[in-house]
Design a protein that fits this description.
With 442 residues, this protein is an alpha/beta fold. The protein folds into three domains: 143 residues, N-utilizing Substance Protein B Homolog, Chain A (Orthogonal Bundle), CATH 1.10.940.10; 56 residues, Sun protein, domain 3 (Alpha-Beta Plaits), CATH 3.30.70; 204 residues, Rossmann fold (3-Layer(aba) Sandwich). It has 17 helices and 13 strands. The strands form two sheets. Strands 5, 6, 7, 8, 9, 10, 11, 12 and 13 form a nine-stranded mixed sheet that branches. Helix 5 runs parallel beside helix 7, helix 6 packs antiparallel against helix 7 and helix 9 crosses helix 10. The radius of gyration is 24 Å and the shape is globular.
């Protein structure tokens, strides 16, 4: 296959992926998994760049397309809408030469069995360049911030004074963070190992074991990855395990455990002293936990079950510590999953907060007196975070917040809420996470 033909195939595939998300409501991960095998291995990084970037800039690209087209394309041609958005994204946000973008995007329309629209694509993209349409500034908030209006409104309401920074962070490319197994090496020791193989990284003093790579690399390039020396995990997520565990904890529960990053960290810190049970309702995702722990050389009891109905799986012996990484809107990790902006709806938030409260109510009886439950979400919305915790604590006589931070190094990274603490996305280049530590009266 010629290089031009290969480039056109890549763009046609990217259009199918983006269209699957925008039109069919499919997750980006699922759409990429289904379509990526059609693309040459050496082109897959570019495929991901185009899909992620186009979805990040969805509303701005829609604004430009509306200016360029006399009338919208028919619904049956939605994949060409996606292809045009991908073309405009390349012209504004990549270093790919303009002529290559135009020619390969036009050819991609033929591969997508829309040859009659090839001329339109060619004309529209050339007009975009000729008239400098990219310099036109939108007036509506969705196109300015590249977020749906409902989410802009919620973030502005919950985070006055911080909303612009949060929205901007959501549209940035996420860095690659690593967690070093503290029982085997320090972050500084592993940084030297990376330097020896030509990978630049910086240790993060606020979080033991955390490093941020200057540029992402394949995990296969990381020294010791296959042997469990290091894992990929955002620094904000690495706060969970040391926040939860205290000396003397034996029985530990990781509810909603998949894909297992926090499970592995708990076992790295607790070692043979803890007996960890990992619960998740999705069998495939639980298998990912098993694979993760196997790579780390760790073991736990894995249970495929609904954490909110413990009567079906709990053995009756209380847990000393419970990690509840609750299902949420994931509005704190949008930079890693830009499809969230298109797939989430305002109506989802109430149902998610209801589920979060049910999980708290169901798991609290499993906690031993004097034990701790760490409630965690990767959301920035109060409805899922401090409001859920507040309603639970106020209704639960033996629950109180333990508001002591695990170390003073993270104090300046956290926003104190009525209950709990929030790391906002982009803070020290971390994802957005909420934490509230609850202690059971002894």
């Amino acid at each position: 296959m010629s290089r031009d033909r290969q480039g056109a195939r890549l763009r046609a595939t990217a259009a199918e992926v983006v269209d699957a998300v925008v039109t069919s409501g499919r997750s980006l991960d699922a759409a990429l998994s289904a379509h990526e095998p059609r693309v040459a291995t050496e082109d897959r990084a570019l495929l991901r760049l185009l899909c992620y970037g186009t979805l990040r800039r969805h509303w701005r690209l829609k604004f430009w397309i509306a200016q360029l087209l006399d009338r919208p394309l028919k619904r049956k041609d939605s994949v060409i809408d996606a292809l045009l958005a991908i073309g405009l994204y390349q012209l504004t946000d990549t270093r790919i030469p303009d002529h290559a973008v135009v020619s390969q995007t036009v050819e991609a329309s033929r591969l997508l069995r829309r040859p009659k629209l090839a001329g339109l694509l060619n004309a529209v993209m050339r007009r975009f360049l000729r008239e400098d349409v990219a310099s036109s500034e939108p007036e509506d908030a969705e196109a300015i911030y590249d977020h749906p209006q409902w989410l802009i409104d919620m973030i502005e309401s919950d985070w006055p004074g911080h909303s612009d920074a949060i929205l901007a962070a959501n549209n940035a490319r996420a860095p690659m963070w690593l967690r070093v197994d503290a029982s085997r090496a320090t972050a500084l020791e592993y940084e030297r190992q990376l330097r020896d193989v030509g990978i630049a990284a910086e240790a993060f003093e606020a979080v033991d074991g955390a490093l941020r790579l200057t540029e992402p690399v394949s995990v296969h390039e990381l020294p010791g990855f296959a042997d469990g020396l290091v894992s990929v995990q955002d620094a904000a997520a690495q706060l969970a395990a040391p926040w939860l565990l205290k000396k003397g904890d034996r029985r530990v529960l990781d509810a909603c455990a998949a894909p297992g990053g926090k499970s592995g960290h708990l076992l790295e810190l607790g070692g043979a002293e803890i007996d960890l049970t990992c619960v998740d309702s999705d069998e495939k995702r639980l298998h990912a936990v098993e694979e993760n722990l196997t790579r780390l050389g760790r073991s736990a009891t894995l249970v495929c079950a609904d954490a909110s109905t413990p009567q079906g799986w709990w053995d009756g012996e209380a847990f000393d510590a419970i990690l509840l990484d609750a299902p949420c809107s994931a509005t704190g990790v949008i930079r890693r999953h830009p499809d969230i902006k298109l797939l989430r709806r305002a109506s989802d938030i109430a149902s998610l907060s209801g589920l979060q409260r049910r999980l708290l109510d169901s798991l609290w009886p499993l906690l031993a007196p004097g034990g701790r439950l760490l409630y965690v979400t990767c959301s920035v919305l109060a409805d899922e975070n401090d409001e859920v915790v507040a309603s639970f604590v106020e209704a639960t006589a033996d629950a109180r917040e333990d508001d002591a931070l695990q170390n003073n190094n993270i104090r300046d990274l956290m926003q104190r809420k009525a209950y709990g603490f929030q790391v906002l996305p982009g803070t020290a280049d971390m994802d957005g996470f909420y934490y509230a530590c609850l202690e059971k009266a002894g």
